[in-house]
Amino acid sequence: MSCFWRSAPTCPMWSFSLPPPGRVPSPASGWAKALGRPVCGVSVLEAMVEATRPRSGTAVPFLDARRGEFYLGVFRRTSLAGGTGISGEEFSLCGQGRVLDAVQIATLVDELTRERQFGTTVIVGERDERALELSERLSNPLERMTAPDFLAGSVARVALRAAPGGRLQRPEELDAWYIRRSDAELNWRA
Q1: What is the CATH number of domain 2-179?
Q2: Does the chain have fewer CB atoms within 10 Å around its N or its C terminus?
Q3: Would you tell me how many other CB atoms lie within 10 Å of the CB of residue 5?
Q4: Residue 174: which of 30, 10, 6 has the closest Cα?
């Protein structure tokens, strides 16, 4: 988990990133609740895209999910609307996170590359051996990038962009979002 707290008077907040698949309450949300600060949940996949800042129009970060599968998200480049005080572009998650096997990922990347004129970037963690191996076998991405293990700066940048746009939440509004149930849940017997 990585945490960031900004104490500037105009935008005090907590932001955090947790292991995949995404937005899950954490100790940072407990501190935010105790201090009366808003929070910004940032998924690891979203932080990976921010850390690498791909040039393509579509980014597909993925992580080893074990069992021969990978967690992934499809992010598309979008323009930041005026009125937030921040201009430029960012990537937004299209749909929901997914769990796919290697063949399904190869098919998805091929489809995305054909459909988008700006190409597709595949992003993997720098020490995620299975994801690195798979990214090297993919035939079609415009570029392959590796995201660092330490994503605190990326989490902070995502949260700072979210604040002026009113995309912060009260800590009690956060809810767990799972792409796949845990092994413990799958194997639990009543």
Answers
A1: 3.30.420.40
A2: C
A3: 16
A4: 30
- Specify the residue for token string 């035939």: 139
- For the stretch 25-30, contacts whose Cβ atoms lie closer than 8 Å and that sit 24 or more positions apart, written own/partner, are 25/171, 25/174, 25/175, 25/176, 26/1, 27/1, 27/3, 28/1, 28/3, 29/171, 29/174, 30/171
74 vs 13: CA distance, rounded Å: 27
What pLDDT, in 10s, does the model give residues 90-121?
898 888 889 999 999 999 988 888 876 668 89
Instruction: Answer for the pair 78, 72: CB distance below 8 angstroms, yes or no.
Output: no
CB 45 within 8 A of CB 22: yes
What is the sign of the dihedral through the CA atoms of 179, 182, 188 and 190? Answer: negative
* Domain extent listing, the chain: 2-179
pTM exceeds 0.85 for this model? no
